[in-house]
Amino acid sequence: MKFDPKTNPLLALTLASGDARITREEVIDYLLEQGIPHHLAYRIAGLLHVVIRVGDATIRIGRVILHQMLEFLRKNPGMAIGAALGAVFGMLSFSVPLIGSFIGPLLTAIGAFIGAAIGHATDRDQLKNSFPFVVVDAAAEFFSWLVETVKAITAEFRVTAAQFA
Amino acid sequence: MNALQRLLHPENTAIAMNVTGTSLCAAAGIAAAPGLAAATGATAIPFITAAGNLVGLTILSATPIGWFLGTAAAAGAIGYGAIKLAECIGGDLRESRIDSERRNRPVPPSENEVKNIVHHAHRFLGEEDQTRLAEQLRTGGVGIEEARAALRECERHA
Fold it and tell me: Of the segments A16-30, B53-67, B82-96, which one has the largest average pLDDT value?
């Protein structure tokens, strides 16, 4: 997703959240279809409630992240899903300010699954296109606009992260 | 929210009123029993006397033929009441859900509101993104208040 450089990063993220019309059920269904364990699928879907507050404005950042994550997984069907998820959340937690605290706990849960997924893929010789470094690079490139946009907002505005019920 | 507030919530009040309506429907079905029984010429149903008393049947006389007909008529009437009850409950829940959806559905913004916001936002948006914003405002992807708040912040930091 590319944005016009003339567009203010706050409005760019508002527009991105408007594009991200996904539901909790959609996220859970997709992850379960991919073989993700139930508890992990539900925890990941919980990110839908993560928002950042920029003064009076509220940006539904969790919705944007999940929308992008599903796009990334759909566009890279050859990747082992565990490795792909690990790369996405690992990269985001290190690169996107503020929301690391929401993503960090997920990584612990995903960690065990990544190990199992990579082990399974290695056993079946399916790791050719999903070597971890390749996956991380692909995720970093795919999410670069999001990382840059959030970084720009946090540099320019006073931002806090929150989770609404 | 405490129990009283929950009870006084419009949706719950609507359900309570509908339940009253349901009771009336059931009563209407049951009230048909004596009429139907009388119409068939049977008004004495010994083995459902207790039930007859419960539903307000008047026991006037006892004739063997009438018992069978009366039983059938009363059962039919009670069945009618049960069907009305089921219909009412189903209808109540359906209407209550539709009402709730109607209440929660955001009101679509007027074209003037959309134009006004896009006009104010043009300083902060590229040309394509102006069109996107207008479209998202119309379709509900971005709420009016959400866009206004974001614009206020942009102007504050401009």
Answer: A16-30
